[in-house]
Amino acid sequence: MHFDDRLATVLRNRAAGERAARTQFRQLLDLLGERPQAGDKALKAAAYLRLIALGEIIPVKDRAAIVGESGWRFRNPELVKWFGEAHPHIAAAALYRARLTGDEWEQLIPQLPIRARGFLRHRRDLPDEAVRALDALGVSDRALPLPEPFDLVEEFATPDIEGVPELSEPEILPEEPEPLSLSPERLVPEPEPEPEPVSQPKPQPAMGGSEGIRALVDRIEAFQRTRSERSGDSDDPRLPLGEDDEQVAAKPVDQFLFGCDTEGRIDWAEPAIAPMVTGMDMASMAKDSEEAARTIRMRQPMAALAVNIRGAVRLEGDWVVDATPRFTRSEGRFYGYVGRFRRAVSGIEDRREAEADRLRQLLHELRTPVNAMQGYAEIIQQQMIGPVPHEYRAIAATIAGDAAHILAGFDELDRLAKLETGDLDLEKGDADFAAIARKQVTQLQPVLSPRVARFDADLGEGRAPIGLSQGEAERLAWRLLATLAGTLAAGETVSLKMRTGLEQVEFALTLPAALRKAADIFSVDTRAQTGALSAGIFGAGFSLRLARAEARAAGGELARVDDALVLSLPLLTAASGLPSPENQPDSAAG
């Protein structure tokens, strides 16, 4: 006998975020939208309660869009009645999607609210029983009838109002206004025309044709383009109204053109930069002053000359100069350099950012086929198209699970690339890292017991508030503990110690034997001893590297000290809940 436990499986999972809530909302709609069958009434009631809870997370507009989708079945009168009492947008989408039999409509329509019955009246595909039920309840279209046509001229020509003279003579009537003409001259002010030789006027194209409309559009675009160019011209004089010094200083300067005299002193630059660099000596700004002076003295080109500018805030920092010597055409006499300043970029950082960008592009290309395989596998496993043998459903379930595992690995790769390049900031908050570590160690101890392995934890009883959200802190702690627990050998014990100071918390973990021999612990390929504990699919080294990137993003550090792994995180404040230093356990980090 086959038991349908799909609803219980969906209710067993908790929606941690808005994306997960949308997914679970769709799953519940698909399961509850089937024909009513015998089953656990308490389970169905729990499903409706879950829909109510998910409705607090998902906005009304998004819920209405999900209900109006055509990818799920809607043949359950109970669900139709439940949605009929919801928000008007959601009720309208649900009643438009419902597919019930005539008898079901006949029994359901009297139980629906009056507003919901009005939504049904706009459907043209209802069975005859539903139409008769709506007619019996007096539900009709709410659309206003079209007004009857009447002649405005006749109404105006025959007024009969006491005290108002009759407008009978034609000369009293107002003149017929000039018809509105959508000509370019009326819509767009033209610039003053330049003097041109007298020529025969060209006929204007008729506005009714496509050529006239095209000309109108072109002239409007030309006017807007000219106006934007004028407004963006930085050479126009203007008063400093609405723009303070901080806003001006905030504009980044990545490069600028310059010129210098025969002695290497800047005598010209771009107008916005000239006041800040005029008079500076190229040789004194160069990091290798002797080499720069020799280049100027020998009249040689400046190729990637490293200089450092001090002074204006917008220009401070390292620059690279490329310049070419200038000579007079008549005598060939040297009279200076002309070239360009550009910001110096670290080769290592530039290469790392380029590699991270290529990795993100590769992950984007790989996610597409994996998502497709997962979707097709779920369609087969859930029999959304038709009945499928159980053997194929089992294979499809395995494929869907493997695809989800691969996508989780892609997410970790993408997260590491963004953290190491500074493109991702961890969510801020106020989490107690000590309480999180104690809770997770308690959860891991029973899993390690069958292998006679354990954590020898000395975490104290104090608090360690850090500037991360609860989810981010739990993810970091679990990544460390699960990685070490997965590499523990049978009968092995790992000691954990935590010390909380005035400014930071240090969490020291002794390395298992499988990781202790590695020269670089952040690049080892050690796999978990059991499938129950796994912090990732790329091995312990990658998981620890990702944990190090998360710690650095939080302002801390994760490093190896002898045979221990030490995590340091800054505390938010010296809260009163923290124990005094003399009452803390004397445990060094390492």
Automatic annotation (TrEMBL):
InterPro entries: HisK_dim/P_dom, HisK_dim/P_sf. Keywords: Kinase, Transferase. The keyword Kinase applies. Gene3D superfamilies: 1.10.287.130. Residues 168-178 have a biased composition (Acidic residues). One of its GO terms (molecular function) is phosphorelay sensor kinase activity. Residues 224-238 have a biased composition (Basic and acidic residues). It is an enzyme of class 2 (transferase). It comes from Qipengyuania gaetbuli. It holds the Pfam family HisKA. The keyword Kinase applies. It catalyses: ATP + protein L-histidine = ADP + protein N-phospho-L-histidine. This is histidine kinase. Residues 164-210, 224-248 are annotated as: Disordered. SMART domains: HisKA. Its EC number is 2.7.13.3. Residues 354-422 form the Signal transduction histidine kinase dimerisation/phosphoacceptor domain.
